[in-house]
């Protein structure tokens, strides 16, 4: 048993070592990814559940790694957050997404109120110069601030609710819209909800997933939607995958939906084809 223990220990050490080396490689590669133009944005449509039309898009990052292929954010965002690289990466995302939104608005119709949602990580959210940087990006891309929606997770807001509220007010003053992401997964959210100057919340897909499967989930979603509406906040349901979920969400008067039932995250070229073929605007 002793030698087995030692062997296990060895294997464990080796795994840890490999993992550390791999993380180091990943960090080095990520540092160069921006200048080497390996980062990409995909855009997932957000659909109005009342009209069935596309209301806007959420920008979702991908990394076209030279050896590993197309990497999902789950594979590198944690490393980016740990190393602080999320700050330059996040600024790249903001700039790229704003540029894209402005381009589509101009290209397709000036009256088409297309919005662009961008995820902000906790590290970015606590950067003192975030406000100035967003202001600069809006100016440089000539995007109307109202078209930009910033998604901040409930847990980031709750981490330090006092300073978060101040930051949210400063962001709000820029004219951008603020959304709570992954709502329902943090704590004590309900009591704080009225204090945050937010425009919308996104119900986490774990609740949406169970809609139709158990009655309790429907009750939770109903409670969230009712509370949000009482506070004048609109609701987006994430991860809508089935017609049954859609039916329930409409019955609950949830305003917007996003998920594979409607569209997957799409490349720029596919979005452009979609807009042209649907001619729904
Ligand atoms: P999120 O903000 O909750 O984004 C939604 C995720 O759910 C996306 O995964 C999307 O592809 C996926 N999704 C959409 N519809 C469905 C569905 O019907 N079913 C299922 N199972 N999944 C669906 P993705 O693109 O892999 O992104 C994962 C997470 O990575 C995001 O979660 C977000 O937290 C983070 N992320 C993505 N892009 C950025 C970014 O630019 N900056 C930062 N800080 N984080 C990002
Ligand atoms: Ca582009
Ligand atoms: Ca999001
Ligand atoms: Ca989310």
Topology diagram in text:
Elements: H1 2-33, E1 39-48, E2 54-65, E3 69-71, H2 73-83, H3 86-108, E4 115-120, H4 122-125, H5 130-141, E5 148-153, H6 154-159, H7 161-173, E6 177-183, H8 189-192, E7 200-203, H9 205-210, H10 215-230, E8 234-237, H11 243-251, E9 256-257, H12 268-278
Parallel strand pairs: 2-4, 4-5, 5-6, 6-7, 7-8, 8-9
Antiparallel strand pairs: 1-2, 1-9, 2-3
Helix pairs in contact: 1-2, 3-5
This protein binds ligand C2E and calcium ion (3 copies).
The site of one calcium ion has 2 residues, from loops.
Low-confidence stretches: none
Order of helices and strands: HEEEHHEHHEHHEHEHHEHEH
As a percent range, the share of strand residues is 15-25%
Q: For this entry, what is the oligomeric state of its chains? A: single chain
Structural class: alpha/beta
Give the rounded overall mean pLDDT.
90
Taking all Cα atoms into account, the compactness measure Rg is 21 Å
Helical segment count: 12
Bound molecules: ligand C2E, calcium ion
Largest sheet, strands/sense/barrel: 8 strands, mixed, barrel
- Distance between the amino and carboxyl termini: 70 Å
Overall 3D geometry?
globular
The main sheet orders its strands as: 1-2-4-5-6-7-8-9
Protein name: EAL domain-containing protein
Domain EAL: 23-279
Organism: Trichocoleus desertorum GB2-A4
Q: What does it look like?
A:
- The chain contains twelve helices and nine strands.
- The chain is α/β, with parallel strands linked by helices and 281 residues long.
- An eight-stranded mixed beta barrel has the order 1-2-4-5-6-7-8-9.
- The relative contact order is 0.12.
- The structure holds ligand C2E and calcium ion (CA) (3 copies).
- One calcium ion binds at residues 181-182, 202, 238.
- One calcium ion binds at residues 58, 119, 151, 181.
């Amino acid at each position: 048993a002793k030698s087995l223990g030692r062997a296990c220990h060895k294997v464990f050490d080796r795994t840890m070592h490999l993992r550390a080396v791999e993380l180091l490689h990943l960090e080095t590669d990520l540092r160069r990814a921006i200048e080497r133009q390996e980062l990409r944005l995909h855009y997932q449509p957000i659909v109005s559940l009342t009209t069935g039309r596309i209301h806007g898009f959420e920008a979702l990052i991908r990394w076209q790694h030279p050896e590993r292929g197309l990497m999902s954010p789950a594979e590198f965002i944690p490393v980016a957050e740990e190393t602080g690289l999320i700050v330059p990466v996040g600024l790249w995302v903001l700039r790229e997404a704003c540029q894209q939104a402005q381009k589509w608005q101009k290209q397709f119709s000036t009256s088409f109120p297309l919005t662009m949602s961008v995820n902000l990580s906790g590290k970015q959210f606590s950067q003192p110069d975030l406000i100035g940087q967003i202001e600069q990006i809006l100016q440089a891309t000539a995007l109307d601030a109202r078209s930009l929606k910033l998604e901040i997770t409930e847990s980031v807001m709750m981490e330090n609710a006092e300073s978060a509220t101040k930051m949210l007010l400063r962001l709000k003053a820029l004219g951008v819209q603020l959304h709570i992401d992954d709502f329902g997964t943090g704590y004590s959210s309900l009591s704080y909800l009225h204090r945050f100057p937010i425009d919308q919340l996104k119900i986490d897909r774990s609740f949406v997933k169970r809609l139709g499967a158990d009655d309790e989930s429907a009750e939770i979603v109903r409670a969230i939607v009712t509370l949000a509406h009482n506070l004048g906040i609109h609701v987006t349901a994430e991860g809508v995958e089935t017609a049954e979920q859609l039916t329930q969400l409409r019955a609950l008067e949830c305003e917007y939906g996003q998920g594979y039932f409607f569209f997957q995250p799409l490349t720029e070229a596919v979005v452009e084809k979609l807009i042209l073929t649907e001619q729904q605007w």
